Amino acid sequence: MNISLLVNSDTAATSMRARTPFPTSQHRPPILLSPQRRPLAPLVSTDYVDVAALSRNVDNHFAAYNTPLSPRTAIREFHALLSRTSSSTSLSSTSRTSPASSHSSSSSSHSHSFSNMTPQVTFSVPINRQTFFSKLIRVDDESDVPEYPETHATNAVGYLHRLDPDDWLAPVHDNAYSWGAGGVNKTAKGKPITHKLLVDDAGNHVPCRVTHRTCQGIKTCKFNDSPAVRAPHISASSNDVSIRLAAEREARLANSGPNAEFFQRTEGLIMSLVRLGCHDSVLESNSANLDSDGLRAHHRFLQRGYVDKTERCTGKIKFSTDSEDRSLLHCEHYNTLNNRSHYVQYIDDGFYDCDYLEAFFSDDSEATRTIEEAACNNGHGPLASCTTVTNTTSRRRHCPYPHRHDDGTFKQALLTQIECTAQFRLYEPLEEYRKTCPYVVVSYSGEHTHAPPLPLTTPQRIRSEIFEIFAKMGEDLADLTPRRFLRHAITRTYICSKLPNMRHATLGDVHPSLANREHLAMYICQAKARIYPQGSGWQGALYLYKEEPEMYLIGARYIRSIIEFALNDTPIKIIVCMSPEASRRLKNAQHIQSDTSYKRIVGFNELVIGHWNTDAHTSLVFCRIYINSETAEAHRAAFNEVDRIVGLDTGSGLRWRHLDARSLTDFVGMILEITGDQGGGQSKGFGLYFIDAAARRPPQYDLHEPLRLITSLTIYEHLHRIFRLCTTHAKRNIRKSKVSESVRNDMRSLMCVRHPDWDGTIRRICEAGGQAGRDWVFDKENSQYVFQAMCWEKSKIPLDVWRSGERDDNLIESSHFDVNQDGRYCSLVSGIEKGRRFDMLKLQSVKSIEEVNIRPSYKTGHPSENQTRSLKRRENTRHKTLDSEDKKIESYNAHFEDAKRKWFNARRTLYDRQQKHPNARTAIQIQNSTKSIETARKTLDQAARNWKALVDTATTLPRGSGKRRAFTFTDVHWG
Fold this sequence. Notes:
The protein is an alpha+beta fold. It has 30 helices and 23 strands. The longest helix is centred in the C-terminal third of the chain and has 54 residues, at 863-916.
């Protein structure tokens, strides 16, 4: 009695594998064969059993028979034994039964018992009286959907997939094969279509929808004559693709070398010129070119509908040499005198093959053919065989390599399709039955008549996970690029969750198709279009502004106003972002700061208004204004809009000391001072806004000039009463001034409370500073408010307010720095969203301090801590500067010592030669001695001049720390 038994136990327990008497990775699923090797049983369960125990039971069972059994009797006995053993050892015998097992007893005497382990295979599964699956594979885990499903040359291979009813993803879309359009059927001869394996919980067949499609094969270059490309197959894997690509790569490497790279570089230049041509505007008539009309039509076809809106020169490219025998390529219309805009390029003989270029562009077909045949003999060039293969779903139409066609043209060949007749049929329950029957059946039939395609299709499950990552990225999505996506923390976390045991894994390790960054860019564009349908620019901001009331509660609104108007035919665009909570805090602030950032948003400046919260000892941003203009009128409109928004949120607009105070000592409930830089648009915009604010108030007299109404104050008079210049910006500009350090000190001295000699200092700056000093003074006087904003004595701000206020806007500068950590040069939508997150974070920090006294750090925020940190930074900076100055002094002293040594050596040489001169006897000796003395005297004079010039530069040296002193002539011991 000979019965062959092969059991698939790849996914069984390790101990079970250890007892298997044959390699588990190479055997087939169970099938009973007769001595004539024909299958006697159409259905055999593939439950995972203990093979060693089963073998022992078989031996004991058949040993009980004293007489030999017939083959059919032995088969029946073995089926009974296998059924008993499977029921006692199957890993899923107590789990739920698949739809196939609920009705198989009525159609067959053999039962189907599917476990949860995947994959599970059953051979020779009948579907009806005429057809059967040569193999049925059950897949319970959606992550195990085959990328290269098996098929059969004559019959069909079936797959039974369990899907999620709430996230129904047909498994055929995860195949690497390219499927055609096909068709969909729900009825056959007027009756609903059903399938034997698709039943509900009660065992009833459910109506199905059948989708059938045909494989579209692959695309390959017409010059690809490799038999591997057209080799048929019924099963494949990504390893087969890797093996084929490795063989092609080894063949290319075998033919590679310096000559091949040299030729391919020249070939690439020729192909680029054939495609682009001169690329200049059409001005002249063109001479006949090599099938120019046909080539242009061919290249337009390869552009897939792209049309260049600018007409280009179609002149012929020629090869020639200039008067200096230098090789160059140029358009036939190029002229060095009056037509130099046409194409011209000088050729480096060591970088390109000039012989090939000359032969090609001189229409020397024989020389060109000779060079290309020599390259073909070495395995490269336009006459060599090609290896280009891609999937039919690829949008590529042409081979990336140029080829010499039968008609003699040199161009990229169109890809040809290798047709295939393999088919699939997808049986899936109708939508209303998917809860009770969450299965689909896919049958694959026919042999693939081509090589396995590339794994370019990202599985649907992974694609859904990628889009879930996009949804979690929030404001980072608007400016997301493939490189930023690959480096994002959420992406790295996702990769680690998918591949926990692989260190330094990348997204390409999750699936090879994700290694293509343009493939990722396509997904990113789809996600952006879904979340930001109007883009991430101005229209995107308008869409975000309109949709914000539905996305956020009324108290959480952030984009409060968008203004667009024309100013001198220039469109002005303004966006005001501020939360209602920030509005209330702005109204209660006393000292505010404002500053503009120019690099965070592309096409827009970002004006930030904030202050130092003296109670919480932390900074807070009130408002962000995105504006595309630096004019005073644009800032005027922005500040008026901020005032209007504060009025909506609090019931009344902003209150300012010089407009709303009842006396010079009334400081409660109003803004006392604004600190900002000398930006003309920003500061003058404040002045224009104050004129509008004064006009909205009842008539009242000015506190500083009681005989004048506040409505009569000019722009600059308003600024004299409330605006203060940031000393950090002022000192930074002074440091850049091209004046001496003493003049810079005079400029810095003007930033004070009282100055002992204001007019004298201005006069010294103009006289000692030269033109640069006079320009600096003129700029400040011409502004009509800067000197008043630098010195309290010149302004009309109360002294108590001046002393209690901030002398710089470093708080806003620090907020610029903080928010810039999320990215610079952002799109408008991304910048708004990132600014929202930062402002909400700062506002929450202030609330935590006020409500539960939890600070963002363990520091208390007391002014002494800030002063200590400021002193340390200042002293460290000062010591670094002094150390640098000391090094300059040390370098000078070293040069001084060297110059002194050369002078002393030159003087000693002259003295020695003068002493030897009287000893000269002959005329030649006297002549040589005289020349040597003259040479020594010249050397001494040159050393003296160098030394004196070096000493003269000592006056420009910095003073340093005082530990080093620059040497002078008084330090020289003359001896």
